[in-house]
UniProtKB/TrEMBL annotation, chains A, B, C, D:
Pathway: Carbohydrate degradation; glycolysis; D-glyceraldehyde 3-phosphate and glycerone phosphate from D-glucose: step 3/4. Homotetramer. This is ATP-dependent 6-phosphofructokinase. Its EC number is 2.7.1.11. The lineage of its organism: Bacteria, Bacillati, Bacillota, Bacilli, Bacillales. It catalyses: beta-D-fructose 6-phosphate + ATP = beta-D-fructose 1,6-bisphosphate + ADP + H(+). The active site is at D127. GO terms for cellular component: 6-phosphofructokinase complex. It comes from Alkalicoccus urumqiensis (Bacillus urumqiensis). Its main location: cytoplasm. One of its GO terms (molecular function) is AMP binding.
Length: 319, 319, 319, 319
């Protein structure tokens, strides 16, 4: 393997730059040439491809976002788009490609089968919504970002004795709400996997008030409902105001935490080593602290391990 | 003056604790007794009043919120409520009262005229919506909190080349949007005092895209419109997605900045010294770095100095 | 088991409060009474012991330090001290005791054998110097605290093209230096377990400069040498200035990260459940994501797993 | 005025990038060409000069350090160096030069008299050691950086009931120690302008302990002594341990605060407008919120206004 390339695709996540750095420097270490592809598969089709060296990635490990930018590319899924991508890969004699992103990005990598370029995926998404791996790059940072917001809201809600709803990302996967909710001491956590009715939430709210609790924080994953609907229902049923915070894209930003940088660094090196070993159509994952590689197909059909332990912890500790 | 009390009222703001500490320790320095009244005028009516000592406030200077809590109290504006407050002030022989809050809190202080208790107000609100003073306690912290959010959004919006709308507090006063907008390099700033039409914003957005700008941050004060309305209009007119973040009560939280702690400390000492000097019905303010005291009436009728310099700066620098 | 107590001992670490909260609320959940012992074994001997309820720990999950305070207590190791402790435990009818701390604290727990009180240890130390467990409470926060310092130093050192030495905690265990060094992209990492000579460091420094590197960050664990000695040697051998930062007790502070709060919460619940199950003289640990309990003796004689993977990663990525 | 240039010189400070951005975009607004000179006067002599456009500075307002880098340049003070600088200024037809830095940088600007290039200085230094201006760019950020360290140390020192010495920058000017000390609630503040003897400090320490104070934070400006000497003296005279933190170059880093970005933005615009108005050999300053320009000579001989108000505040509030 002489020439490899790296791209980031889909939603960006903090730590993607640390992964890019690791891919580039590992390639340099193994005497390969390495290219950076701009704006994901979109840039691949357009040949937006540049050489990267060890110093191109000299000051990026601590930066959020991705220096390679990212884009969604519907056209890449057409035959024409795919052919353009094949052409560009051949033109730059790229033997191996590292794709950093989520499930859509991995599906993109699968369509490159037959191009003669080996592909390895690295999981980068703040949602932690890839069931095959314990953690994705960016998740730990996003949890801590949400947690900072909870801490700020605590200051004012304990001054005011109020209820606050915090809506966080997570369409299918409530991990962000669960981790940040347990770590933030939220009294209620509402996630897609474990739908509680709004009645349950309001019931707990009433109980807490009866016991003299001063504030009540509800962590809501966007996939499990809308903060403004819940807010309305609380007003109607309890007659009391509830406040809403929608964190939005703040959750994608921020300097990556140590954990995310280490995970990204380890996965970047492993991806390059897998390419050297002849692996293709695989993704890197982490299982109880150990890296592994498995086929994209297997990875995309994995079932979620769920959050029973943390949800139980929450119900015991948030009395 | 032998006995003074301090209360916080209205929306809490970071730095209120530093002001409480300063009031308490200044009182101790001048050999007065000092009481803390819980939950603003509500607690005053209920006699929720406790002695504070130098060590009661020993570890609060860095904490957001207010250890005295705060509440809104419609009943305080009734004659019955006022009489209860008078009774409590007499019962504890409180000669002077320091009220930390916004315009509503100062109006509350005015209704205590005739109680025999002298009153001094300290401006504490994150909105900076008290025109008589250059700055209020909590404003600098809130600006920096919004700024952190902008920085996080920058990470991801420059990776994605997208438009983001950030809705911040400010019903009548756009200072928070202006300061954070200029400091954050926002391309558009929309405030109640200087209403630009959404068309202007969209026009600027188009221009920027034409010139190759990668992202566009719109800072919107809540008093000047709703983020979701603006979002819809952008989609309709440009066909492009815009993202929304509603910071909500995060803006009230956080450890106070150095500026807010210093302002609060200075104002707390000054308030006590004004009480000692026999002043009443006055508020403390800051004018170009210098503290002053003026009557509540004068303060509440002051006109805003406006934000021309910063708005001009924004229009020049956010090309 | 009816009555349990909890204490923190040795150096404090961020997340101890989250562990205390978890112990208290788990005990409440299992219908036990729970006591907090102030200032570790010192307070135990003096009977500085108070009832804690679910609301005593209502607003502490996000706070650094320990609400129970901590102290070193040489007298506790004498027979007289131990007898006093026995007396206090009997007097309060404490059936089980949770000790949060490091190896010294666990040895303290061992001396309580024969008191009739079962003991369970929870690992709380920022150094991660307890070999039997993958992680200790406070370590993730400390790594991120050091990392923030590295990020700040990067700003200025890349403006200045200079060498910086950052001295971090770690007498016998270099984990803090290794994790923060790899995550911060430090060019050299010097730890007790893997002593490189200063010559090696200076050699790498020269190489980097020859290749045009703009700055060089050296992460030094205190157990592997002194920053000021290294600084002097660099000046002597290269003629160039190197700057020193000694982080000191900053490393013990800060709001705990999500990871530390989750680890602390999980361990707190587990400790209470172990006491209920009749376990004593054990400590809780974590092995690849799973909690476990093992005897204090076994734990204290465990051998470190070392840092080979991360040190190799560092040598590949910090070219 | 057609062509202007900008350079940063001396120690970097957070907000320099915001000032560079403001200079560049203001120049663009006034239809000038603008050049960035790398590494201060060193780069000027070497002709390390590049065109900057509005988009060159598109994503730097929030970044610490300086994209133009900075250097000390003894050779620039020689005739030969100065002549090289003159030559480069002529070669690029630079009519006006904005110098961002401290007193040394302003003296450098003075030596360019006779070159035909007008010069304007902008004060950028974290020490706030330029007496002619109330604030310098970077000072507010540095104060808040020190404050964060104090907050972290508070966590652990209140758990431990210990004394901590924090050594901060400031050779001749104690502003950083004073502002951060008052805002952080430090019990003792030692600065060059107002030398207290170590005995005074130790006396206050004893008093505090007698009154039951749990911890004692000493803020020491480097110009007023060494933390390790003070530490030793405390041990000798009180028999108790004191802990030392030397913040070092952390103080130069960090994202600039809102205040520093606004100050930098305003000063950058003003500098360009002064050049357009034909001013030279002047510096921009701020006096009670208002910008002004005055001659470098006058500025460099200004006398410090001192810190009486804050030092008095400290002595009253840190009982």
């Amino acid at each position: 393997m002489k020439n490899i390339a790296v791209l980031t695709s889909g939603g960006d996540s903090p730590g993607m730059n640390a992964a890019i750095r690791a891919v580039v420097r590992s390639a340099v270490y193994y005497n390969m040439q390495v290219y950076g592809i701009q704006r994901g598969y979109e840039g691949l089709m357009h040949g937006d491809i540049k050489r990267l060296t060890a110093s191109s990635v000299g000051d990026i490990i601590h930066k959020g976002g991705t220096i390679l930018k990212t884009a969604r590319s519907p056209r890449f899924m057409t035959e024409e788009g795919r052919n353009q991508a094949f052409y560009q890969l051949r033109r730059h004699q790229i033997d191996g490609l590292v794709v950093i992103g989520g499930d859509g990005s991995f599906r993109g990598a699968q369509t490159l089968q037959g191009s003669g370029t080996a592909t390895i995926g690295i999981p980068g998404t703040i949602d932690n919504d890839l069931a095959y791996t314990d953690y994705t790059i960016g998740f730990d940072t996003a949890v801590n970002t949400v947690l900072e917001a909870v801490t700020k809201i605590r200051d004012t809600s304990s001054s005011h004795e109020k209820t606050t709803i915090i809506e966080v990302m997570g369409r299918n996967c409530g991990d962000l709400a669960v981790y940040a909710g347990v770590a933030g001491g939220a009294e209620s956590i509402i996630i897609p996997e474990n739908p509680v009715t709004y009645e349950d939430v309001i019931h707990k709210l009433d109980e807490g008030r009866a016991r003299g609790r001063e504030h009540h924080i509800i962590m809501l994953a966007e996939g499990a409902g809308s903060a403004s609907n819940l807010q309305q229902q609380i007003v109607e049923e309890t007659g009391e105001e509830a406040r809403v915070t929608v964190l939005g894209f703040i959750q994608r930003g921020g300097d990556p935490t140590a954990s995310d940088r280490l995970l990204a660094s380890r996965m970047g090196l492993r991806a390059v080593e897998e390419l050297r070993a002849g692996t293709s159509d695989h993704v890197i994952g982490i299982d109880r602290g150990e890296l592994f590689a498995e086929s994209i197909n297997t990875a995309l059909t994995a079932e979620s391990k769920g959050n029973e332990e943390l949800m139980r912890l929450s119900s015991i500790l948030s009395v």
